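Need a sequence for this fold. Nothing fancy.
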């Protein structure tokens, strides 16, 4: 499984770009898994007073909610990329957010040059999002519009995404 993440500030085009990436990877025959990092203070899937919340209150360290159409497994901690790996088995694991994961290759979405300056990391291999309609590159990194040139962006993902085993080896 190969892993990459898409990072950037809110409303920079991350989700829109990632949706197009996922569609193109699937069109190429890949099985794609994804994880969205929610940056909302005090966000929780587990609702106070509901049964899964009560299970945790009784001492369960991991709880799950299973319905007829979906299942959510709830850990009462934020898992990093390495901790998430055992839960996925696709050809690609597409992360949204996870900017703190220094070893995971990144696409940086931005609205403007100032945001690029502030968020640029060594692990960024492509720039996309709103700014990609205005620039072709930034500090030697290609800026590719995920709405108009998704094939080129996904070609770069195929080249730059890190293999899960390599990530684990570098992490330890």
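Here you go.
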């Amino acid at each position: 499984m190969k892993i990459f993440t898409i990072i950037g500030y809110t409303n920079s085009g991350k989700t829109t770009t990632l949706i197009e990436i996922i569609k193109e990877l699937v069109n190429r025959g890949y099985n794609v898994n994804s994880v969205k990092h929610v940056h909302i203070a005090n966000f929780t899937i587990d609702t106070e007073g509901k049964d899964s919340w009560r299970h945790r209150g009784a001492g369960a360290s991991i709880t799950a909610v299973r319905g007829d159409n979906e299942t959510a497994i709830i850990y009462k901690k934020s898992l990093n990329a390495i901790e998430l790996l055992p839960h996925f088995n696709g050809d690609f694991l597409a992360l949204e957010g996870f900017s703190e994961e220094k070893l995971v290759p990144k696409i940086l979405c931005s609205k403007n040059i100032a945001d690029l300056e502030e968020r640029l990391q060594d692990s960024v291999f492509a720039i996309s999002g709103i700014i990609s309609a205005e620039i072709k590159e930034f500090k030697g990194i290609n800026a590719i519009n995920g709405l108009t040139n998704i094939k080129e962006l996904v070609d770069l993902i195929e080249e730059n995404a890190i293999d899960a085993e390599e990530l684990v080896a570098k992490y330890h």
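For context: The chain is about 30% helix and 25% strand.
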